[in-house]
Amino acid sequence: MSESGRLEAIWIKRARRGPMDPATEAQLIAGQGIVGNADWGGRRQVTIIAREAWDTLREELGPAVQPIMRRANLMISGVDLRDTRGRVLEIGSALIWVHGETRPCNLMEETLPGLEAAMKIDWRGGVFGAVAEGGTITLGDGVRLLPQPAP
Q1: Segment 121-145, tens digit of pLDDT
Q2: Looking at domain 3-146, which CATH architecture does it have?
């Protein structure tokens, strides 16, 4: 996998444990997160998964595995998210500082038996981070893992 790809999906969570609404674009605010998303401020402003990881999960667990089950905000392709803590992802005009791996919880297991354990392998649950530079992102935008670590 290269260090560049594209934005495949956007979901906005209205409330904690609430539904994930698909969107074609989202506004990101530096230091805050995604406008309208329940996770506002703090270190976990945006969660991101890789389409390739979900393709692997579907091969292992079957077609019932859908990316929305992860409850992430963004799905990207073409960029390997493993071991990216401290790096910066450029998505469209926005920059996201990756703070770490999003570890799966028992909610994943409630959604589909075996999903929690399968996501614990190779950062398949994705990453979380904070918005370093805001902007509007749109489906199909380019995604790049910047070569230098975040400040």
Answers
A1: 889 889 999 999 999 999 999 999 9
A2: Beta Barrel (2.40)
